[in-house]
Amino acid sequence: MTTTTSIAAPRSPRSPRRLRGRTNTELYAWLFMRVSGLLLIVLVFGHLFVNLMVGEGINALDFAFVAGKWADPFWQIWDLLMLWLAMIHGSNGMRTVINDYAERDQLRMWLKVGLYTAAAITIVLGTLVIFTFDPCPVEAAADLLPSFCPGA
């Protein structure tokens, strides 16, 4: 007597009709994670080195240090790249986690809407802070101002 055993089809979170129009989005997301991860290593360790090791180290970190640093467009772009890459890299990772663990389509959609909203707000506010930062505020105490400010 022969007994046949059948193996159940694996559970798929996507319906077959959604798979037909598939693009290489996941491949690009995977590549972005690798490239942005490498860039973030350089950006973060460069940021830590300049802020903590050069000059007086952590004792020099104050308003004047940040103001002087952000007065230079090079450091504005450096910090902007670090902000954007970190937020997009982290959001892409969270998107992957949501896709893997949120089983219902409606829940998955709302979690991603919340994720994308939070990431967009953080990126916009961070970008505004970097580019609208005033290193010489009028009401600041003179001893806190960087040396290049007129009242310092």
UniProtKB/TrEMBL annotation:
It comes from Phytoactinopolyspora mesophila. It is found in: Membrane. Coiled coil: none annotated. One of its GO terms (cellular component) is membrane. One of its GO terms (molecular function) is metal ion binding. The keyword Acyltransferase does not apply. This is Succinate dehydrogenase. Its main location: membrane. The chain crosses the membrane at residues 27-54, 74-92, 113-133. SUPFAM superfamilies: Fumarate reductase respiratory complex transmembrane subunits. InterPro entries: SQR/QFR_C/D (IPR034804), SuccDH_FuR_B_TM-su (IPR000701). Pfam families: Sdh_cyt. The keyword Transferase does not apply. Keywords: Heme, Iron, Membrane, Metal-binding, Transmembrane, Transmembrane helix.
